[in-house]
Automatic annotation (TrEMBL):
<feature type="signal peptide">
    <location>
        <begin position="1"/>
        <end position="21"/>
    </location>
</feature>
<dbReference type="InterPro" id="IPR045857">
    <property type="entry name" value="O16G_dom_2"/>
</dbReference>
<dbReference type="Pfam" id="PF00128">
    <property type="entry name" value="Alpha-amylase"/>
</dbReference>
<feature type="domain" description="Glycosyl hydrolase family 13 catalytic">
    <location>
        <begin position="44"/>
        <end position="438"/>
    </location>
</feature>
<dbReference type="GO" id="GO:0005975">
    <property type="term" value="P:carbohydrate metabolic process"/>
</dbReference>
<comment type="similarity">
    <text>Belongs to the glycosyl hydrolase 13 family.</text>
</comment>
<dbReference type="InterPro" id="IPR017853">
    <property type="entry name" value="GH"/>
</dbReference>
<dbReference type="GO" id="GO:0004558">
    <property type="term" value="F:alpha-1,4-glucosidase activity"/>
</dbReference>
<dbReference type="InterPro" id="IPR006047">
    <property type="entry name" value="GH13_cat_dom"/>
</dbReference>
<keyword id="KW-0732">Signal</keyword>
<keyword id="KW-0326">Glycosidase</keyword>
<keyword id="KW-0378">Hydrolase</keyword>
<keyword id="KW-0325">Glycoprotein</keyword>
<dbReference type="InterPro" id="IPR013780">
    <property type="entry name" value="Glyco_hydro_b"/>
</dbReference>
<protein>
    <recommendedName>
        <fullName>alpha-glucosidase</fullName>
        <ecNumber>3.2.1.20</ecNumber>
    </recommendedName>
</protein>
Length: 586
């Protein structure tokens, strides 16, 4: 009997211990790393152009997985992928026909799971593009909506328009971003549907709660497959004026088909967009809390005025929205003509407007805009990466920018595939086309730059690949890639993570930025944005007597890493940048 009691007591103890261990494990598993993204470099992959694994001339998921070790070597720990979902590819994946499946030429859901599993093993987080504003017209939802299938009638924005002399006219003057009326006549339904991009991208109707519900389920679906968050596409286009009022003329052009013809006060930046993002933030936060691990985050794409962009961080009541809205200032506000003052002013402006407690971010390039080497000039590549990496907060790199890849602007009209460029016609396509910045990644000097073994690739490879490629840059004693790599390494320093930021134009051609943190050596980045050699004196900017040691220099620098500099004699060749360590001299 005593033995039985003892056994029971032992059993109970064991059970109790197990339950405690379980709940400790649970608790541990549910801990959320809230801050992992605050100083991260996010690397954007354009999947079609990154790496082709099966020789069809189109990049794919297996290709990306095969290149994950490249990120480890580079020091990248988070990637975001432009859309990989089923799509007729009218807008190369930004027209989604099934939000829960993979575009067959990119692979399968199994390939995706493998990508995530390998990335996890290598310590790389994966962010997916999420396109809420519109689906493809080949999506089941649209087909059902067009056929007025019950429950889907109002999934999209349908309107009768008016009739004039037997001809149907759109309900108002709204124009598409890609030119022409934003209203598309649908013969089957005998109504217009709204499409702010191509006619293959009908706008979803978020005033219908069923749409929101369906999209929430899509987000959860990918979260369950292990993604760490989303880049939300074209978020400032989601809601439009309920009354469908005409937009006023902007006066910028007399072409009524041009997107610049109107002042978009009723189709962009409507108040309700913020509510939608706050709703999704809560969904992500709830998910992170429930399952633990890295905070699942959201970065939003919206080209807008600064106060409108800032509202995505949080609203005036402090309700949280995106973890960060993309800062496109290096693309939209600055260029090769900008002065040192322009740079300091533009950087400062973001920091001034950003609500307290948030993280800044700096987008250097993307698949919609010319590359850094083509916007700022090939000589600026290293300096711009120095800037990106030493500013406070998050850096965003578009694939190929670490090599200084250039736009291939000379793609013929016959080879052009970007829809708005095709629509613009042979005489106007060249400067509208986004193909030049989307050409295949230049891995090596092998066939098709090592991107694909196919006889032809979906876009031509830039002919400069024989010299400009990763393999060459890995072998060279100094290269853009090596500069990039050393900058990422430097980012793990405390001063770049947590240090304060001060910047100053030393003259109209050179500016300096300083990062400081008590007990740590300070960092100074000095950049010449002009085509003239400059000699500058930073003594006043750095106050204390300091020992200046070079940490990072560009490819063509006369200086060497480790070299000492005199504060009053810093010579910068055209477009040169330097990253310097400051230590108080005794
Ligand atoms: C975003 C994408 C762009 C796409 C558009 C429509 O701006 O970055 O590539 O064409 O949305 O989805």
């Amino acid at each position: 009997m005593a033995w039985k009691l003892l056994k029971l007591a032992l059993c109970l103890c064991w059970l109790l211990a197990e339950t405690q261990a379980d709940s400790a494990k649970d608790k541990k598993a549910k801990e959320v790393d809230d801050n992992w993204w605050r100083h991260e470099v996010f690397y954007q992959i354009y999947p079609r152009s990154f790496k082709d694994s099966n020789g069809d001339g189109i990049g794919d998921l297996k290709g990306i997985t095969s290149k994950l070790p490249y990120f480890v070597e580079t020091g990248i720990t988070a990637i975001w992928l432009s859309p990989i979902y089923s799509s007729p590819m009218v807008d190369f994946g930004y027209d989604i026909s099934d939000y829960r499946d993979i575009y067959p030429d990119y692979g399968t859901l199994d390939d995706f799971d493998e990508l995530i599993a390998t990335a996890n093993q290598l310590g790389i987080k994966v962010i997916l593009d999420f396109v809420p504003n519109h689906s493809s017209d080949k999506h089941e939802w649209f087909k059902k909506s067009a056929a007025r299938v019950s429950g889907y009638e109002d999934f999209y924005v349908w309107e009768d328009g008016t009739e004039e002399n037997g001809e149907r006219k759109p309900p108002n003057n709204w124009v598409s971003v890609f030119s022409g009326s934003a209203w598309q006549w649908h013969e089957e339904r005998k109504q217009f549907y709204l499409r702010q991009f191509t006619k293959g991208q009908p706008d979803l109707n978020y005033r219908n709660p069923a749409v929101l519900q369906a999209m929430d389920a899509v987000l959860t679906y990918w979260l369950k497959r292990g993604v760490s968050g989303f880049r939300i596409d074209a978020v400032n286009y989601v809601f439009e004026d309920k009354q469908l009022r005409d937009e006023p003329l902007s006066g910028a052009t007399s072409d009524p088909n041009s997107v610049d013809y109107l002042n978009h006060i009723y189709t962009r930046n409507q108040e309700e967009n913020y509510g939608l993002i706050q709703h999704w933030r809560k969904l992500l936060d709830d998910y992170s809390e429930k399952y633990g691990g890295p905070a699942r985050i959201m970065m939003t794409e919206g080209y807008a005025e600064l106060p409108q962009v800032m509202e995505f961080y949080e609203d005036e009541n402090g309700v949280q929205g995106a973890n960060f809205p993309f800062n496109f200032d290096f693309i939209t506000e600055l260029n090769s003509e900008s002065t040192a003052q322009d740079f300091v002013f533009t950087i400062q402006r973001w920091l001034i407007y950003m609500p307290p407690g948030h993280s800044a971010n700096w987008v250097m390039g993307n698949h919609d805009n010319p590359r850094v080497a083509s916007r700022y000039g090939a000589k600026s590549v290293d300096a711009m990466n120095m800037l990106l990496m030493t500013l406070p907060g998050i850096g965003i790199t578009y694939n190929g920018e670490e090599l200084g890849m250039e736009d291939y602007r000379d793609i013929s009209f016959e080879d052009t595939v970007d829809q708005p460029a095709c629509e613009a016609g042979k005489d106007n396509y060249k400067w509208i086309s986004r193909d030049p910045e989307r050409t295949p990644m230049q891995w090596s000097d092998e066939k098709n730059a090592g991107f694909s073994t196919a006889d032809s690739t979906w876009l031509p490879v830039h002919p400069n690949y024989q010299e400009l490629n990763l393999a060459n840059q890995q072998l060279a004693p100094s290269s853009h890639y090596k500069v990039y790599q050393s900058l990422i390494k430097l980012r793990s320093s405390k001063v770049l993570k947590d240090g304060t930021y001060t910047a100053q134009a030393l003259n109209r051609r050179v500016f300096a930025l300083k990062r400081e943190l008590r007990g740590q050596p300070s960092l100074l980045t000095v950049i010449n944005v002009s085509n003239r050699t400059q000699q500058v004196d930073v003594s006043d900017f750095i106050d204390l007597p300091n020992r200046l040691t070079l940490l990072v220099v560009g490819v063509n620098s006369q200086y060497r890493v480790g070299e000492r500099l005199k504060p009053d004699e810093i010579r910068l060749t055209p477009y040169e940048g330097l990253v310097i360590q400051l230590k108080p001299s005794k």
